[in-house]
Amino acid sequence: MLGLTFAAPLALAALIGLPALWFLLRVTPPRPRRINFPPLKLVADLMPQRQTPARTPPWLLILRLLIAAALILAVAGPVWNAGGIGAGGGRSALLVLLDNGFPAAHDWRDRLRVATDAVEGAARDGRPVAVIGLADAPSAFEAKTPAAALERLRALAPRPILPARDAHLATIETFLDKNRGAALDKNRGAALVWISDGVAGANDTRFAKGLADLAGDKGAALTVLRADRPPVLALTATENAGKLVTHALRAAPNGRDTGLIRALDQKGLPLAERDFAFAADATEADATFELPVELRNSISRLEIAGERSAGAVVLQDERGKRRRVGLVFGGTLDQAQPLLAPTYYLSRALQPFADVQEPRGAKGIAESINQLLDNQVSVLVLADVGALDEKTTARIESFVKEGGMLLRFAGPRLAAGNDPLVPVRLRRGGRTLGGTLSWDSPKTLAPFPPESPFAGLTPPADIGVRRQILAEPDGDLPNRTWASLQDGTPIVTAQKRGQGTIVLFHVTADTTWSNLPLSGLFIDMLRRVVALAGASAPVQGDPSRATAPVLAPRVTLDGFGALGSPPASATAVSADYADRATLEHPPGFYGPPDGGISVNALKPDDRLKPLDAAALDGARFGSLAGAETLDLRPSLFTLALLLLALDTLAGLWLGGFLRRGGLAARLRGRPAALALGALLLLAALPVRPAQAEEPPANRPNGVESALVTRLAYVITGDAAVDEASRTGLTGLTQMLAARSALEPGEPAGIDPAKDELAFYPLIYWPIAPNRPQPSDVAIRKIDAFMRNGGTVLFDTRDGLTARPGGPPTPEAAYLRKMLATLEVPELEPVPLDHVLTKAFYLVDSFPGRYATGQTWVEALPPAADGVERRPARAGDGVSPIIITSNDLAAAWAVGRRGEPLYPVVGGDQRQREMAFRGGVNIVMYTLTGNYKADQVHVPALLERLGQ
Predict the structure, then answer these.
(1) Is 419:396 a contact under the CB 8 Å cutoff?
(2) In this predicted model, what pLDDT tens digit does every residue of 17-70 receive, in sequence order?
């Protein structure tokens, strides 16, 4: 199929008239040459030196036919699809399926471009279009106008999850059935274009085959556009032998064989970096972080540097931190032998996920416990420790109430004592099973109840308990039981005390009472117990034990891996949530900062797999690069114009005007013609507008610049940024003139190094990181401008990409470097009681094109007791610097007819209006200072009013 289409194919009918134009031009000779007839040259000029043709020359005919053909083709609107990939012609509906999970974030702009080309092609064909994101929740949809489809495309964004495509098959089938019924006369069903990320989704094993079957059954043409090799990289992390092991993943070899993994703390500061490299044809590469416990526990985020995707980020919560565990054994020195002591089994089981410590040089159990508590252990393990002195007992109780965990194991000493540091009341002695004097046989563990921290673990059938410490029955015993034997007797109990927990295993930590320490279940049980240290989840014995604790989303990742406010669709998760992220539970942090959990886009054992293209029978495939379209209209109009100029020159040549002296001789003596030509030439020259009403917008040293109040913006050298600044300040100027008594002049573009800055109360400085840093002269002049009462509004325009607590964006790094040599005052986010929030309108935020960024001003001094907080700076009390990231100028920018030039990003319908109000407040604040916060004259005014 040819890739050439026409937006107005009926215009091609004019090509039929080209033969008639040929005959018409043949019988029309060129303009005859005028021959002067002076009497003295009668004989010489009667015979012209050159014969005038009776008919138009064939080459000139062909030239003019080419002009007509080029104009007709241009009017027909030809568009060439270089790749030849599309959904075909016709008037049937077009359905665009766009993968918008995190694997599509890497080349999201290319995917949007391809989808936009497909929709614009449907618009040229007059076809309705439907657009759905396969990572969104499935819902009924219908084909709409191409304009509505383009709006839908602009609203789509990558989701921070793997798409679950199977859920969309039902709605796609409904759409195809509806379209097939409406298109029977055309013998054609809907056309499907799937812009795929090339990665298998979450549990979507049926989608590719199901989509191909639907296309075949419903008579739909299916086109799949994808990258040649999936470019996405993802990241997971696991714990192995005390080391943090990260796994860089890819669906297939894609040429991106090396990279860098960074470990960041909660403030986004780098803690460590590790390189990774994929082996040939490998899809997984590991990088190991070996760090001290303190540094290891400070890691809040792991990410692949430069990969803007939620799948390339792993968030670390309390469960991922490596706890410091202290071990104390209550036996004698001869019992503390390798392979015999309980601490041997405990240390081997705990070492893969905890930092195990044992007392060194301590004399006695009390000194050992105090030494470990001094080392700030998170978990204190007492193996067969009996009664303790009051001072040690009090310190352990304080340790537990402050959030520590006490893990105890039974033994002869604990069975013989009367210890208050246990979760339940114990019977003296113990219970022996399988002995020569017992009628019972060894018991195994019963399945763990759903509310137990051990839920999901399967007790092996070969575990046998021969002896245990029994708990005294009471009403609270079932609520404090985490695990029990098959006969119902508790084997693990726990109790919440203060902020901490006491856990008791009713068997020993060695093999004398059971073979539990020899099983893998023992390691898993200890892992879950240690993970609860410092967590906010309630344990058995709490009133909320019957239901898992629920944690609300605090901050979540978007599809590009940036942390931000949770979306409206985000819901709470249980404290034991361990699955990958979903639409309802996007990746991010849930719960309070000191005890919440993290949800990630991938589980630790997830791996990326390529899409099974073999299941797409009958589909046509194309690449993202090959799907670009080319509009031929500009080229054809340009060709017609050049040919027309050539035709004009040919006519002049045939008429003799281009001979030596021919044109000059005819113009000589014709002053009227010369005057008319001069007037036409002057009319074609650009005319500067009259400047009588106000002085020029930028007169560096002119007195006229002080006569009109203007806003100024810094010319960065980036044409797009400077145009946005100019149109933005123009829109704000118009809004100020319409809503206030201020009538500012046209905004001025300035160069801080060359122009005088004293004429402008407010200078807007957009940050363009691709431009060089300003010179020292510019920095010094800006410093003097701010010292003398001026205000500079720096706009980093990175509100969409900046991550709270993440690494600085290029714009933020550029601004930091620029301000490094300036005396910038201490800054703070604009407080709600700041005069800036009520200088003209009452506002509580300053949105622009984005609404997620923060606005910073000079920090206010601490308010005295009973006194309203107010600026107290020298001069007029105006902050010399304001910093924002919301791209204010783009929200203010308007065209010649007052229409907005840039869309705003956010869910608030009044965001642009609030951006204008914030801009008006900023201007009024810079012009009037803090007069609205000045209450010096309030008592005198009230007295005069008689109140």
Answers:
(1) no
(2) 777 777 666 665 555 666 665 665 555 555 555 555 556 677 877 888 888 888
Residue in 224, 3, 185, 200 with CA at minimum distance from that of residue 95: 224
Gap between the Cα atoms of 23 and 758, Å rounded: 73
Kindly tell me if the per-residue pLDDT of 285 is higher than 90.
Answer: yes
Rounded to 5°, angle at Cα 391 from 385 and 392? 30
The pLDDT of residue 697 is above 50: no
222 vs 87: CA distance, rounded Å: 7
Query: Helix H segments across 464-594?
Result: 520-531
Residue among 292, 290, 293, 312 at smallest CA distance from 301: 312
Tell the burial category of 531 from Cβ atoms under 10 Å away from its Cβ (0-12, 13-18, 19+).
buried
Give the separation between CA 757 and CA 746, rounded to whole angstroms: 16
Each residue's pLDDT tens digit, 822-862:
777 888 898 888 888 888 888 988 999 988 888 999 887 66
Helices in 851-906 by DSSP H: which ranges?
Answer: 888-892
Q: How far apart are CA 512 and CA 415, in angstroms?
A: 14
Kindly report, residue by residue over 644-693, the tens digit of the pLDDT: 888 888 877 776 666 655 555 555 555 555 555 565 555 444 444 343 33
Relative orientation angle of helices 342-350 and 520-531, to the nearest 10 degrees: 70
CB atoms within 10 A of CB 341: 21
Per-chain mean pLDDT for the chain: 80
CB 8 within 8 Å of CB 77: yes
Nearest Cα to 189, choosing from 218, 157, 147?
218
**How is residue 853 written in tokens?**
């960024």
Cα separations (Å) of 397 from 142, 364, 402, 786? Answer: 65, 19, 9, 58
pLDDT at 592: 84
3-state secondary structure of 767: coil
Vertex 165: Cα angle to 161 and 168 (nearest 5): 125
Q: What is the rounded distance in angstroms from the CA atom of residue 323 to the CA atom of residue 527?
A: 10
CA separation for the pair 8, 598 (Å, rounded): 55
CB-based burial, 100-129: b 16+ in 10 Å, e otherwise: bbbbbbbbbebbbebbbbbbbbbbbbebbb
192: which strand partners?
95, 222
pTM of the model: 0.55
Distance between CA atoms of residues 943 and 939, nearest Å = 6
Q: What is the DSSP string of 565-579?
A: PPPTT---EETT--S
Confidence of residue 694 (pLDDT cuts 50, 70, 90): very low
**pLDDT at res. 665:** 54
